[in-house]
Write a structure and sequence with these properties.
Elements (H helix, E strand, L loop, with lengths): L4 E5 L4 E5 L8 E4 L4 E5 L5 E6 L20
Antiparallel strand pairs: 1-2, 2-5, 3-4, 4-5
Length: 70
């Protein structure tokens, strides 16, 4: 996947970020910080969902990404 998909659900107060195709989703694992990891069959993380995520001004939600070259 050449792009990251970000979805904000104001009603459900969730922020969902996919770094790979959602259709590959196989299992979800909730962590301790109200974060759900979506994984494929091999256990690779495809995305995550932050629960209880609220934005004061959702019309002004900005998302910035930074890449790291190794």
């Amino acid at each position: 996947m050449a792009q990251v998909k970000v979805f904000y659900d104001q009603t459900g107060n969730t922020l969902t970020v996919w770094s790979d195709e959602p259709k590959s989703d196989y299992i979800c694992e909730e962590t301790t910080e109200e974060v759900v990891l979506m994984k494929d069959k091999a256990g690779h993380v495809l995305g995550f969902e932050k629960l209880n995520f609220e934005v004061v001004k959702p019309d002004h939600l900005n998302v910035a990404f930074e890449t790291i070259n190794q």
